[in-house]
Write a structure and sequence with these properties.
The chain has a domain at 62-219: Vaccinia Virus protein VP39 (Rossmann fold). The chain contains eight helices and nine strands. It has helices at residues 10-19, 26-34, 63-73, 92-100, 114-127, 129-133, 168-172, 220-226, and strands spanning 52-55, 58-60, 82-86, 106-111, 137-141, 154-159, 174-184, 191-198, 204-212. The longest helix has 14 residues, at 114-127. InterPro entries: PCMT, SAM-dependent_MTases_sf. One of its GO terms (biological process) is methylation.
């Protein structure tokens, strides 16, 4: 962990992200303050600003990447809205999205590893049980590349693994005015974080944001082999 910021608590970590302008909005600050990262990954590494392995060849992204994603989606994560978190893993970002969408919103977390879906449910139950009790979070097992049309369309979609090509199903499940954030590129090579907006009249606008490194968006069998 040499060279990474290492806080002693969730609040220390969040304040570090705010000081360094990774968290800019009050709503993202409130969500990341409310959702304790220590309940979604190993406590000894929870407040380090770096990715952490959570099993099955999967990582929970570095806190600054979660902050960046939430800031990009902030204007779409409004009370009563719907969001999809593809590759929901430990459930951390799904919970943050649900908090930002208020009592009438819905955040769907999808992962093709049943054990990760179960882990996410357990984590959220220990941190924010009301999100599950009130139906503000729904966790499903499935191929995130195909999205989850049963609950669409979505105002915000986040993809936590790198796609080799633009997942058409996710574009189709974006609501007019919605936004998709996903990393694109081959495994262990140049990847770029991409923002895709669907205009009110259905046009697609895409822009590249920054270079990133993510695990690949892949099928369940390959995922198990990576674990």
């Amino acid at each position: 962990m040499h060279g990474y910021y290492h806080g002693r608590s969730n609040q220390e970590l969040v304040q570090h992200l705010k000081r360094n302008r990774m968290i800019k909005s009050d709503r993202v600050l409130e969500a990341m303050s409310s959702v304790d990262r220590g309940k979604y990954t190993h406590p000894s590494h929870a407040y380090v600003d770096s990715p952490q392995g959570i099993g099955y060849g999967v990582t929970i992204s570095a806190p600054h990447m979660h902050a960046y994603a939430l800031e990009l989606l902030e204007e779409k994560l409004r009370d009563g809205g719907k969001a999809l978190d593809v590759g929901s893993g430990s459930g951390y970002l799904t919970a943050c999205m649900a908090i930002m969408m208020g009592p009438n919103g819905l955040a769907v977390g999808i992962d093709h590893i049943p054990e990760l879906r179960a882990m996410a449910e357990e984590n959220i139950r220990h941190d924010h049980p009301e999100l599950l009790r009130d139906g503000r979070v729904e966790l499903v097992v499935g191929d995130g590349r195909l999205g989850y049309p049963d609950r669409g369309p979505y105002d915000a979609i986040h993809v936590g693994a790198a796609a080799k090509e633009m997942p058409r199903a996710l574009i189709n499940q974006l609501a007019p005015g919605g936004r998709l954030i996903l990393p694109m590129g081959p495994e262990n090579a140049d990847q770029v974080l991409v923002q895709v907006d669907k205009t009110i009249d259905g046009q697609i606008k895409r822009r590249s944001l920054m270079s990133v490194v993510f695990v690949p968006l892949t099928d369940k069998e390959r995922q198990y082999r990576r674990s």
